[in-house]
Structures are given as C-alpha cells and as structure tokens.
Design goal:
The complex is a heterodimer of chains A (194) and B (120). Chain A has 194 residues and is mainly α. Chain A is built from 7 helices and no strands. Chain A has helices spanning 2-30, 36-65, 69-80, 92-111, 115-127, 134-156, 160-190. Chain B is mostly helical and 120 residues long. Classes of the chains: A mainly alpha (194), B mainly alpha (120). At the A-B interface, helix 1, helix 2, helix 6 and helix 7 of A face helix 1, helix 3 and helix 4 of B.
C-alpha cells in the first residue's frame, strides 16, 4: 500500500514536471522567455496581427470580385506594411502570413500585366519562406508564372535571348515548385513535421 | 497559434492521462458505463469509466482535427503542384512534362486515398 502510494506520488511529480517542460517548449516557439503577463500581451499582439491579415484578405477578395485588382493589391499591402508583432524576431506565423500575402500580391500584379513588380514581390515573399513549406512552393509556382509571362513579353518585344533566359528560369522555378509541394504532401500525409 | 494549439493539446493530453490512470471498467469505450444504483446519492463525481470515455472522445477529436489539418495542407499543396505542372508543360511538352504529370497523378491518388476529394 505504501509502495503503491509512493508510485502514484512519483507518477504525479513526473507528470507535473513533464507538463511544465512541455509548456516551456510551447512558449519558446512563439515567445521569448518572459513573465506570464508579458506572454499574454505578446499572444494578443500576434492574434491581432493574424486577425488584421484575415480582414485585409477578405477586403482584397471583395475588391477583386468587383474587378478592382489594384484596390485588392492595396488591401494586401496593408498586411505587408503593418507593424509586426514582436518586432525584431521572426515568428513563423507572421512569416507565413507575409509569404502568403506577397504571393497573392504577385498573382494580382500578373493579372494587371505588371510582371516587373510581380517579380519583385515574389522575390520578397521568398525571403519570408526559406524552408520547404507550402508557402515556399506556392511562391515558386507564382514566380515560375511571372517568369513565363516575362518570357512571352520579351519574345513579343523581339528580345529572343532574354526571352529564352526567362523561359529557362521559369522551368527551373516550376520544377522546384513541384518538388517542394510533393514533399509537403508526403510529410502531411505521413504525419511528419511540415 | 502553435502555442495556443500546443496548450490545448497539452490540456487534452493531461485530461486523457488523468482518465487513463483511473481504473476503467470499459477501456474500449464502446460499451456504456455501468451506473451504480445509488451513485447519485453517494457521489456526484463522474464514474471512472465515464471520465475514461470522455478522454477517449477528446483524443479522437484531436486526431480528427489533426488529420483534417494535414489534409487541408495536402490539398492546397496538390493544387499548387497541379498548377505548376500545367505551366511547366506549357513551356516544355516533352518527356519532362510527362514525368511531372505522372508525379502529380501519384500525388493526387495519394491525397485522394487518405483524404478523399479535395474541395476546389
């Protein structure tokens, strides 16, 4: 009986310790070591930023559906220019939101035949998605289309050499996009880390 | 968000762990727990078997949620892969296009087998 009580106490202590360690690990993913009050403030900032991003995506969707693509781009720019939570640190959630916003901006710029700015924005977006994630794959896909469009424009302008270069670059980017997304699917369905 | 998810999972795991440590008459959770005749009069707390079943439901709910999240990720990656392949084939309709199409078909089949049809 005493042994049994001792075992239960040992299990309880081990569980509480493991729980505390897990919580500490969870905290570290988003926040720097901070007092619990500060942590709550940081979370609120992050959630506010994510909410703001969602709102601007909705705004962009409404504008895009009404045919105002420039307005949609402006709405999305409010995400990329907004104050970021936890300034000076790269939060994965914020980086994903930025990568996603730049991909959508570039996509819209392509639709209004602004391939030069589309190229700049997709390159900026890629800096926010260095790892092999869906967001990087999507940016590579959009970049490939940007280069494909640019190749066509250059060919129309009689710049065959530059057109061939852009076309070869497009192929490289599209191959990379296929590779990245194939990996993302594999990891998602194997239940591994994304 | 990861932190929120992490805390939620930890909380659920803690609930599950507590329930598992309690003696359970129905580990599978598939049969209704026996109700003692005077349970209400003696003790208002849940019988261990109810707590255990509840924990199993929580765990199952968590697994479904995780699976749904993985399928969402797989579906959007597949859509992007399909678009990239279409553009690649528009630039080079030769052997590379055929190989990429095969890879896309294999990925599509894999996603379909695990997740069903992706919503468009």
């Amino acid at each position: 009986m005493t042994d049994g009580r001792f075992s239960i106490a040992a299990i309880l202590i081990a569980s509480v310790t493991a729980g505390a360690l897990l919580l500490a690990r969870c905290d570290r993913q988003v926040e720097p070591p901070a007092a619990s009050d500060d942590a709550a403030v940081v979370d609120t900032e992050l959630l506010a930023f994510l909410s703001l991003a969602r709102s601007h995506h909705h705004e962009a969707t409404i504008l895009e559906q009404s045919g105002d693509k420039r307005g949609a781009i402006d709405a999305l720019r409010k995400i990329t220019t907004a104050a970021k939570p936890h300034a000076g640190e790269k939060l994965p959630e914020v980086e994903e939101v930025l990568a996603d916003a730049y991909a959508r901006i570039a996509d819209l710029e392509l639709e209004i035949k602004d391939s030069e700015n589309a190229r700049k924005d997709v390159e900026t977006g890629l800096r926010h998605a260095p790892d092999s994630t869906y967001f990087r794959g999507h940016l590579l896909e959009v970049y490939g289309v940007v280069e494909q469009t640019r190749a066509a424009e250059l060919a129309d302008a009689g710049q065959d050499g530059a057109a061939a270069e852009a076309s070869a670059h497009a192929l490289t980017l599209l191959r990379q996009a296929v590779d990245v997304q194939e990996g993302v699917i594999g990891r998602a369905l194997d239940g591994g880390a994304k | 968000m990861k932190r929120v998810r992490c805390v939620a999972m930890l909380a659920a795991a803690a609930c599950g762990g507590a329930a598992e440590s309690a003696p359970s008459q129905s580990p599978s959770g598939t049969t209704p727990p026996p109700v003692p005749e005077n349970a209400g009069a003696q003790n208002t707390a849940e019988p261990p078997s109810v707590a255990s079943s509840r924990a199993e439901v929580d765990r199952a709910e968590q697994q479904i949620s995780a699976a749904a999240s993985d399928c969402t990720e797989a579906c959007r990656a597949l859509a992007s892969m399909e678009r990239a392949a279409e553009h690649l084939c528009a630039l080079d309709s030769g052997a590379e296009c055929a190989r990429v199409r095969q890879r896309v078909e294999a990925a599509r089949e894999r996603v379909r087998t695990t997740c069903g049809e992706c919503s468009r």
